[in-house]
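S1.2 Input.
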Amino acid sequence: MIHPDRFFDPDPAIRKVARELHRRVVDLPLICPHGHVDPSILAENRPFPDPTDLIIIPDHYVFRMLYSQGIPLERLGISRRDGEPVETDQRKIWQTFGENFHLFLGTPTRSWLEQELAEVFGIEKTLDGETAMEIYDEIAAKLATPEYRPRELYDRFNIEVLCTTDAATDSLEHHRKIRESDWEADVRPTFRPDWAIHLIGPGWKEEIDRLSQLTSKEVSSYKDFIAALEERRAFFKSMGATATDHGVATPRTEELSAAEAEKIFARALAGNATGEDNDRFTAHMLMEMARMSVDDGLVMQIHPGSYRNHNRALYETFGKDMGSDIPTATEYTGNLLPLLNKYGNDARFTLVLFTLDESTYSRELAPLAGHYPAVRLGPPWWFQDSREGMTRFRELVTETAGIYNTAGFNDDTRAFPSIPARHDCSRRIDANFLARLVCEHVIRESEAEQMIVDLAINLAKQTYRLG
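S1.3 Output.
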């Protein structure tokens, strides 16, 4: 069902080299420095409940496509905020999925799911309306066996390290449970303080209260706030964290005076912060996070450019992460000027930049990474995490930044069983890109043989300080 030459060029000369390059990395361990797997899955190691709960309900890549074709999220078992009933027959939901699996043709989601079904679950038939129940039963039977528990799959996937994404106020109890168990796996948290920094975001004051409780010190001023974040970063680092992550609307950076920051924070505590207060404070906090990274060595990631919850009705009914986040145009050169002028030349600092705006690859991001020692480019993210998106990324940034100013690959997924397929897709696309350069006599095959290994594992380990 899945072709051994998938993603390789039809030109036989390029395909031959691509096969050989892929062969060199196909069995290498998986380095997962950024993602959204729930650590409780690995801490508890309970059997996955059923195919629907595993593959459909948690994955917005799946249900956003079905929703776009008029299938209500209630029919897919997605819980409503108001508690109104939704479909609970998991087999019926899976049948709907199977009948509409053709909608994913040509998409990366289809490629991931087909490889997942074939290689993780040993499914030999194409999913459709006629085979849906047979495939559901086959997967369900396997999920009931010890070999398909989360830790066993983690080991089978040959994951060397997996980093989760965790709020600044997360207790990290699941990470602690993993560390204290007799299971030898490298699962690390990542410090993401977005909910504490976005002053007018939902639940901000509650997040500040949690920050006070966890640090045993009331956060009643900006100075307290900074001290609390520094304490939490130190705790995350003690639990194995090597990175922070920041989801922002724009990568705007601005350094406020301590007095200005204090005034804005006081207005926020009083419930009087404005949109401009929020934007300036977020821009300032990116500067503060960079300063802290220089001090504590945590790699800083910025994920900007998503208009969150664009479909207001869907957000009000179901909440966030319902597949309605839409990319926006994003500017980096001016927005990052204050941060890079202050920290971009510091050998202690690493900044990994992501984008949803492909127009910035060659115009801004590659020149920034090709100059500032601190900057690395994160791999194609979200809507660009695809065969074409990865290819365009390599074509647009390599001439200016090379590959050694990029951060390798990360899967950035909540869908745990899809991790091997996502890494294999990246390795195949990179093998094909390098093979073309070999056949065009831009690089030697011996150079490509080292480059493909670096792209597969070494760059991620070096960038995120995991090796």
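S1.4 Remarks. The first helix runs from residue 12 to 25.
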